[in-house]
Amino acid sequence: MTRDKTGTKGHIHMTVRISRLLPTAAIVAAFACSPLSFAADITVPMRDGMPTLAPLVEKVTPAVVSVAVKSKLDMEDNPLMKDPKFRRFFDLPDKIPPQERSSVGSGVIIDAQKGYILTNHHVIDDASDIVVTLKDKRTLTAKVVGSDKETDVALLQVTAGNLSALPMGDATALRVGDYVVAVGNPFGLGQTVTSGIVSALGRSGMSIEGYEDFIQTDASINPGNSGGALVNLKGELIGINTAIIGPAGGNVGVGFAVPTTMVKSVMNQLIAYGEVRRGQIGVQIQDMTPELAKNLGISQTEGALIGSVVKGSPAEAAGLKAGDVAIELDGKPLHGMSDLRNRIGMMTLGTSVNVVVLRGGAKKDFKLTIGKPAQQIIEAKAEDRPALMGATFGNIDPSEKMKGVRVVSVEPNSPAFQSKLRTGDVIVAVNTKGVANVEDFTTAVKNSERQTVLAVKRAGEDLLVILQ
Q1: Which residues contact residue 343 at a Cβ distance below 8 angstroms, ignoring those fewer than 6 apart?
Q2: 296 and 235 share a domain?
Q3: What pTM does this model have?
Q4: Which of 69, 128, 257, 455 could bond to 215 as cystine, CB 3.0-4.6 Å?
Q5: What DSSP string describes 285-348?
Q6: Active site annotation includes 37
Q7: End-to-end CA distance of the chain, in Å?
Q8: By C-alpha distance, which of 391, 372, 373 is closest to 441?
């Protein structure tokens, strides 16, 4: 998967083996048989005896914008640059100036009165300047209201009159096979429209985002389409285009959009708080499988099996136990681990929820309140290990499918930074011995010899960091 932005000098590929952005499935062939009526209130218009999507496109495109971003990237100092004699000899500056990068994505006006524009987090991440270009060629400076990396959703705001906005549709009403239209700014060419169908729903486990519930579509999506609109034949927004799978970073008919069910929840929190305040219930979970169901002596093959309950968590307070199988949340079936995690993660702190579980073959109802993630954060101490000074470490959210200790922050040019630790790293082992929490980590570091090997996961890669 690769995450892409279309730049002024080509395409910038941040390789992750899926392409972030979002060409073509023509639906005209499917329209060969007429009359064409897809619902009681939706009939594809005809012109000169041929079906056309032109009226729909004319309605939708004024609300889709181009998002041009300038960002400054700090470059790591070359070791020679730290030598003052070297700098003086070659008349070099004390510090390498940050490089400027330009890229182009897409966005969707969702509120014409307040000037709110939805786009992707990765489109505007680290932006120093954001300029929005409307279909009528007006250019507007945008500010970031808030951004959420975990869902790849960001909200911008502009000040202008005569804006057109898209109504937000209900993504839960989608069915595989429904026709959709994608609008965006692929390769920086300008506003472009493609069409296709919904190929699949509820795609997760793609390792694209922290929270995944994607709409998959074969509507042509390419680099530069990120943040653009996926709409139904009513002209309603039902998703924000965010990623593609493509061996060379281009479209092969497998694109993904964040559904409006998730987008709306994130947007409301960004407006209210400027960030997403996620909660948790304090359980470690895994998908139910037919084999697990057989071993547990139950017939339920869908749901989330609770492997453990965090002490002091909302789940423990409500009475949930390891071995329970969560099958419903607020009256709606749970299809698996990702479903439970996504739905809980989209709820605000303090929300009351009803969970139905199977325990010993019998259904039991529990009411609990979404709480704050239990995260203990510690700061490295010189007496523990000088090479870790300048870093803080915290426990991983119990709902995540990994064990280890997260590097919460690293001060630039600190001993920890010089040791090659970076913010976001997950330390899974110290000297080959696994660590599950900060207590394990601090104990292992204290008891280790002078040269200590940390097994680290960073952006999907396995690394070794050696402390001297």
Answers
A1: 329, 334
A2: no
A3: 0.65
A4: 257
A5: EEE--HHHHHHHT-S--SSEEEEEE-TTSHHHHHT--TT-EEEEETTEE--SHHHHHHHHHTSB
A6: no
A7: 35
A8: 391
* Catalytic one of 19, 71, 148, 152: 152
Distance CA 261, CA 304 (A): 21
Domain count, the chain: 3
Adjacent-strand bridge partners of 132: 67, 140
DSSP per-residue letters across 229-287: EEE-TTS-EEEEEEEE--TTSS-SS-EEEEEHHHHHHHHHHHHHHSS--B-B--EEEEE
13 a catalytic residue: no
Query: Quick one: 335 and 364 in the same domain?
Result: yes
Residue range 86-111, pLDDT digits in tens: 566 656 666 555 556 677 899 999 99
- Out of 71, 106, 122, 399, pick the active-site residue: 122
CA 302 to chain centre: 25
Helix or strand (DSSP H, E) at 130: strand 127-133
Q: How many Å apart are CA 263 and CA 231, to the nearest integer? A: 14
pLDDT digits (tens, 9 = 90+) for 207-240: 566 677 889 999 988 888 899 999 999 999 999 9
Regarding whether 339 and 223 lie in a shared domain, the answer is no
Q: What is the CATH number of the domain that holds 449?
A: 2.30.42.10
Between CA 174 and CA 78 the distance in angstroms is 52
Catalytic: which of 226, 265, 313, 419? 226
Domain range for 453 is: 377-467
